[in-house]
Amino acid sequence: PPLYLQRYEFVIDFVNKNQPKKVVDLGCNDCALLRMLKFHRVIELLAGVDIKSDVIRKKMYALAPIPIDYLQPGESPLTIELYQGSVTERDSRIKGFDLVTSIELIEHLQLEDVSRFTEVVFGYMAPVAAIISTPNADFNPLLPGLTGFRHYDHKFEWTQAQFHSWALKVCREFGYVVEFTGVGQIPGQEESIGFCSQIGVFHRDRLEGDAPCQPSDVTKEHIPYRLLYKVVY
Ligand code: SAM
Questions:
Q1: C-alpha 27 – ligand 1 centre gap (Å)
Q2: ipTM of the modeled complex
Q3: Fewer CB near the last or first residue (10 Å), C or N of the chain?
Q4: CATH number of the domain that residue 82 is part of
Q5: 223 CA to middle of ligand 1, Å?
Q6: Residue 76 — pLDDT band, cuts 50, 70, 90?
Q7: Structurally, how many domains does the chain consist of?
Q8: How many angstroms separate the Cα of 96 from the Cα of each of 16, 85, 129, 143, 188?
Q9: Using one digit for the tens of pLDDT, what is the confidence trace for 100-113?
């Protein structure tokens, strides 16, 4: 299967294994991953966030219930919420989720916005788990005809060492553990070159106790994101 589908399948496998109830996809684009996730009825709240409202709007009505959803109802109702907003801003409606996914998003951010994203996701949203994927620059020499970045909008592409050092800093600062993996590989080469898309799977460290929570966070509502679509099954 094409690489983007392998990334989505990686998320689906994780959902099957870990059974998260609240899932948010950051940089959800046209909601392709959300459309696949809505069939996983362990999920009770499925949210998507993208900075571009036009890409969200393109296919968002495809998230509406179809007859089979009524014929095979899940155990609990499913709510889907789509927001236009930037992952560099905190929104209190996207806090305390079981799973945050960010698939091929961070490389579209300026580095100072990656710092904001990191603080928003791990310091504020503080999910139980997070799946972050980004291109692996070590793999680029294997891509035929590639000069420069894989996409004109990429602000950077990290080597495995760069991605690992960012991820390990996240773990130290916010109390997570990370497992490195990826999708797209050449058999026998994964040791040195790694995967075409590198993925960090983060879990909140149980030993750290509850997520850090400032007293002001409890009372203060930040709702800068714009709700574009909401459906309850
Ligand atoms: N996650 C999807 C996938 O894997 O197919 C889309 C990846 S696409 C390469 C990156 C997406 O991130 C785009 O839809 C873009 O609009 C969105 N994006 C870029 N900067 C963002 C920001 N600051 N906040 C939220 N979304 C952003």
A1: 3
A2: 0.99
A3: N
A4: 3.40.50.150
A5: 20
A6: confident
A7: 1
A8: 20, 18, 10, 39, 39
A9: 999 999 999 999 99
